[in-house]
């Protein structure tokens, strides 16, 4: 079962992007056969859902990213859960804690650092994501992320200066985000080691 959960993460990005393109195709895709009217998931910038305007292509790319990189978070959280000392949970059971209380007061405090690390890593990976977005939408329909924009400035417009400037801004934002993470989440382990 665990191996099957890892399939989206280890599968080649070109293969899974092509698979999603075929599944979401408005003319012959399997997803549109289930709908009353076809939706161009990867080329439609906005669509109506329950009377609200939603960014269709952007939400599709977000769903793809979540599906593709869920196993990454799964591995981290599973490893931390397996490393939890059994005595903590046994003590909580002896003290009469309910399953909800055990989760809230015993398990979650042990997972916070892993969740924070995952948030930072996924932010960095997603913020600099190029291949998934470019393969699915080419940066069109409201999905032009910074890395795709840098690529377009460099290749389509031959504007090396603008692409370099945007890449530097991207790097600065990532360094600031990493510094915030190191300041607030990674310092606890150093404090514990010094004790």
List the helices and strands and how they pair.
Elements: H1 2-5, H2 7-10, H3 13-23, H4 30-33, E1 47-49, E2 52-54, H5 56-83, H6 86-94, H7 99-127, H8 131-136, H9 146-155, H10 160-184, H11 187-194
Antiparallel strand pairs: 1-2
In short:
This protein is mostly helical and 195 residues long. Helices cover 71% and strands 3% of the residues.
Description of the molecule:
The chain is mostly helical and 195 residues long. The protein contains eleven helices and two strands, in the order ααααββααααααα. The longest helix has 29 residues. The chain is globular, with a radius of gyration of 22 Å. The chain starts with a helix and ends with a helix.
Count of helical regions: 11
Looking at the structure, what is the overall shape? globular
Cα end-to-end separation: 41 Å
| Unreliable segments of 5+ consecutive residues | 191-195
Helix and strand composition category = mainly alpha
List keywords for this structure.
single chain; 195 residues; 3% strand
């Amino acid at each position: 079962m665990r191996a099957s959960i890892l399939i989206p993460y280890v599968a080649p990005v070109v293969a899974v992007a092509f698979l999603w393109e075929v599944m979401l195709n408005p003319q012959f895709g399997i997803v549109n056969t289930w709908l009353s009217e076809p939706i161009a998931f990867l080329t439609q910038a906005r669509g109506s859902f329950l009377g609200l305007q939603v960014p269709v292509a952007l939400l599709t790319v977000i769903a793809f990213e979540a599906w593709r990189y869920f196993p990454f978070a799964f591995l981290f959280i599973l490893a931390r859960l397996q490393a939890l000392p059994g005595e903590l949970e046994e003590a909580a059971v002896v003290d009469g804690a309910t399953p909800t209380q055990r989760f809230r007061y015993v398990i979650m405090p042990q997972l916070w650092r892993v969740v924070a690390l995952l948030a930072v890593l996924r932010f960095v990976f997603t913020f600099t994501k190029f291949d998934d977005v470019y393969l699915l939408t080419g940066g069109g329909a409201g999905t032009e992320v910074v890395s795709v924009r840098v690529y377009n400035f460099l290749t389509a417009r031959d504007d090396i200066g603008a692409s370099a400037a945007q890449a530097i801004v991207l790097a600065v934002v990532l360094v600031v985000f990493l510094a915030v993470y190191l300041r607030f989440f990674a310092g606890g382990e150093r404090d514990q080691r010094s004790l």
